[in-house]
Amino acid sequence: MESTIVVGLERLEYRGYDSAGIALMDDENKIFTVRKVGRIADLKKTLEERQLPPARAGIGHTRWATHGKVTENNAHPQVDSSGKIAIVHNGIIENYLELRKELEEKGHRFDSETDTEVIAHLLEEYLKEEGDYLRAIVKTVNRLEGTFALAILNSDYPDMIVGVRKDSPLIVGVGEGEMLLASDIPAILTHTKRVVILDNEEIVFLTPDGFTVYDFQGNKKTKEIKEIEWDAQDADKGPYPHFMLKEIYEQPKVIEYNIQKYIRDGEPLLLKDLNLRKILLNKNRFIIQAAGTSLHAGLVGRYLIERFAKVPVEVVYSSEFHHRETIIDDRTLIISISQSGETMDTLEGLRLAKNKGLEVLSIVNVVDSSIARESDYVIYINAGPEIGVASTKAYTAQIFILLLLALELGHLKGFVDNDELKHYIEEIRQLPYKLNAILYRDAHIQHIAEKYHKSNHFMFLGRGINYPTALEGALKLKEISYIHATGYAAGEMKHGPLALIDSSWPVVIVNPKTSVYEKTFSNANEVYTRGGKLISVVTEGDEKMKDISESIIEIPQTDEYLTPILSIVPLQLLAYHIANMRGCDVDKPRNIAKVITVL
Ligand code: M6R
Q1: pLDDT at residue 233 above 70?
Q2: Going edge to edge, which strands form the sheet with 484-489?
Q3: pLDDT at residue 274 is higher than 90
Q4: Which protein residue has the closest C-alpha to ligand 1 atom 8?
Q5: What is the mean pLDDT of residues 381-386?
């Protein structure tokens, strides 16, 4: 039991990792709780030292602090006053202070600063009042405002775990003589591939041989068991030292898979759903809303959609989308992009759009995630589990989908003729080989990383369709190496940032052969003449950029509109190696988590 929970937590550690804990129900129906500040490895060590009794049920948690500092007391599980109820929680309880005050007036004493502890005490209170477990749970969850996925252990029901979902993901794994509950699929993959995805405002009662689902009014619900396609090894590092490296290397395979899936007889198939096709043809404006790397993919998407489908596109941070009086009408389509499908900023953006009566198309990796489920239409990017906090393979897969979408829509609208479509499909088919050709140069990129890994700041520059590549390259480096890195539109340097440049600055410039090559070359020269050290990502055989660059990374030649899928890969590798050389925890950088489920 203990090891099942610890292995599950290890697979979820990418979602949060400042402290962790576990609660086990022993054979005498007593709950044992162990919590630890630090990583799962620290918890594991403590568990080995403590040698806990065999358990019949258990829950565990890895935390990314929102309410209350990172201390053992604030780690989960949190327990009630009697020590009979233990709870782990993802999300935020917005009205916890008000509930805490109410409970303190009734004599409850709190050991932590968390919002989660309030839930344990509230349930304790309602169990006394109701005497019935389901009724007490229903009453408790209806008092909570905010977002929550809960797992609850109660020593009066020793063979049972209760799960609750509201706006934070939770799934049930249906095993042989065992039931599992987790916030993400990788946690249960070694046990089962049969899952039940809980919907919002659902409660599940699990026993070793079955599960029953209720709504927030206590009414029973029927749920479908789904077989998932991922394998346990998809969520393992395999021979790679880090998930990030494994995922960078998976990019040719992911693109190949998507080519097989979405291109048939030389034609893209994304819009084979006639409703989706009709909707896209009818819209005269797209707003892409996303966060982080997914937003950068959206920025590339803007160039692609405007070029091929001639639809005006706006790209907004989901976290800012909420705060604007965006001018929209029913011919505006919202496109949400998200790897996890659970980013709260993006989910809230989607809900805002839907509340305004707009239609939403989402481009998502995780099947059946909240964003996928709440959208009118979904296109999956099929990247497989992405565990490293730094998003890599999802980014190139998102751009691939946006490229295909733009081409297909452009073709349907008559802006892309058959010959042009044929040219692009041929170019697309070569992408997996070209991606592999870049990966073969990894040793060279590692050598470049060696040269610059001690620098304390970096600038990333790009122009046109590779301007987002510069933003993404900078994000990759800063989030995993903690080096200050800024991405800029190369043409903007002369409007201010050029003043920063001296011989201490490595400047990564992305300048493959495109229509903006000469202009970007001039920008590179502006940096070169001020003493900046240029690390240039260029098309194979480019002698001109070589002359002014300190380091060169070549990528294979491709059409301008496909270059972002190739040009980002050396920057992912550069960030990876630099972070590694600086001794950083590549897969789990400090202060951030893989899935940000808070606003
Ligand atoms: O799961 P999402 O694509 O919605 O996540 C959005 C961002 O949180 C994510 O891309 C983040 O910026 C990554 N850590 C970047 O590598």
Answers
A1: no
A2: 484-489, 457-462, 506-510, 533-539, 551-555
A3: no
A4: 292
A5: 93
- Both structure tokens of 12: 């979820």
User: How does pLDDT run across 276-311, given as a tens digit for each residue?
Assistant: 999 999 999 999 999 999 999 999 999 999 999 999
| pLDDT of 322 | 82
CA–centroid distance for 117 within its chain: 27
Domain with CATH 3.40.50.10490 in the chain: 237-429, 437-591
CATH 3.40.50.10490, domain 437-591, yes or no: yes
Architecture of the CATH domain 237-429 = 3-Layer(aba) Sandwich (3.40)
Q: What is the number of the ligand 1 atom nearest to the C-alpha of 389?
A: 14
Residue with the two structure tokens 């050290």: 533
How much is the average pLDDT of 32-56?
88
Rounded Cα distance between 517 and 169, Å, is: 45
Structural class in CATH, domain 65-234: alpha beta
**Torsion of the alpha carbons at 596, 566, 272 and 354, rounded to the nearest 10:** 30
Q: How far is CA 73 from CA 39, 368, 516, in A?
A: 15, 34, 56
Q: How far is CA 44 from CA 4, 94, 190, 230, 361, in A?
A: 12, 32, 19, 26, 42
Q: What is the pTM of this model?
A: 0.81
Q: What is the distance in A from the centroid of ligand 1 to the CA of 395?
A: 9
Q: Which of 441, 407, 439 is nearest to 423 (CA)?
A: 407
CATH 3.60.20.10 in the chain, residues? 65-234
DSSP string of 200-240, one letter each residue: TTEEEEEETTEEEEEETTS-EE----EE----GGGGS-TT-
What's the rounded Cα separation, in Å, for the pair 304 and 465?
Answer: 8
- Amino acid letter for position 340: S
User: For 118, how many CA atoms within 13 A lie in the half-sphere containing its CB?
Assistant: 25
- Cβ–ligand 1 contact at 338 (below 6 Å): yes
Stretch 477-504: mean pLDDT: 94
Token representation of residue 206: 């699990």
In Å, what is the CA distance from 38 to each residue of 21, 184, 481?
Answer: 10, 21, 19
**Which residues make beta-bridge pairs with 25?**
31, 57
> pLDDT by residue (tens digit) across 117-150?
999 999 999 999 999 999 999 999 999 999 899 9
**295, 296, 316, 343: residue to mutate for ligand 1 pocket, most atoms within 8 A of CB:** 343
Q: How confident is the model at residue 68 (pLDDT cuts 50, 70, 90)?
A: confident
Going by C-alpha positions, the residue among 380, 369, 396, 389 that lies closest to residue 569 is 396
Give pLDDT, residue 122: 97
